[in-house]
Write a structure and sequence with these properties.
Shape: rod-shaped
Strand content: under 5%
Radius of gyration: 21 Å
Number of strands: 0
Distance between the termini: 73 Å
Mean pLDDT: 84
Low-confidence stretches: none
Number of helices: 1
Helix content: over 70%
């Protein structure tokens, strides 16, 4: 019984670690997407000004 609990806790930790890694990756992707949008809006603004 105790072994099962520790195994569950271990698998849960592994799962949360994987989720955290995925989250970090998606965060990076989100940041790059935001940068892209920012650059595009900036260039369009410059074009409008010219």
């Amino acid at each position: 019984m105790r072994l099962l609990v520790s195994y569950k806790a271990l698998s849960l930790k592994k799962l949360s670690f994987l989720q955290w890694k995925l989250l970090r990756r998606s965060e990076k992707v989100e940041i790059s997407l935001i940068q892209m949008v920012y650059l595009v809006s900036l260039t369009s603004l410059v074009v409008l000004l010219i």
